[in-house]
Amino acid sequence: MGSRTLGFALAILIAFRDVNANIAVPFASNVTYSKLFLSEMPLALCISLVVFFTIRWLKKYQHSSWMPLLIGAILGASTLIRTQSISIFLAILLLAFLSIKNHKQFFKSSVLMLLSLIFVITPWLMRNYMASGGLTLDNTISQIMTMAIRWSGNPPTDEVFTKLETESEAE
Q1: Contacts from 90-99 at CB under 8 Å and sequence distance 24+?
Q2: Which of 85, 102, 104, 159 is the most buried (most CB within 10 A)?
Q3: For residue range 126-150, what is the model confidence (pLDDT) as tens digits?
């Protein structure tokens, strides 16, 4: 997919990006928090793997029925890191629809990818269902509370983070 020189140049650019992000931390403390800050590199790795495997799969889709499973599983992991990454699933489906001429093969691959994505995120969905009573990937109240705390400068007064009885603050 590229050369050794291109890979080295991209690695240097990524390293500089991280250095600049770390320098900017004191100035961005009111718009970000550690969950977002520490999830960038793992999410970038997951998305890079998804793009790499999607390109390989679409080039030789007749030969691999396991590749959609792998792509769906990595997308599920990236969804657990940041929920916005699930939108990549729709882009992959569109690319697959345009690339795969056999509609039966497209449907089979799409279902496999969706099943593996669901398989990866199901434990977290079950945990959240037991804790909050709803099927959610993320607690929007906690996100809103985090932004409110950052902008108001006051400590939180009520416990709004949903957790199970067996969970503590350390988990």
Answers
A1: 92/50, 92/54, 95/54, 95/58, 96/58, 96/61, 99/58, 99/61
A2: 85
A3: 887 887 777 777 765 555 666 666 6
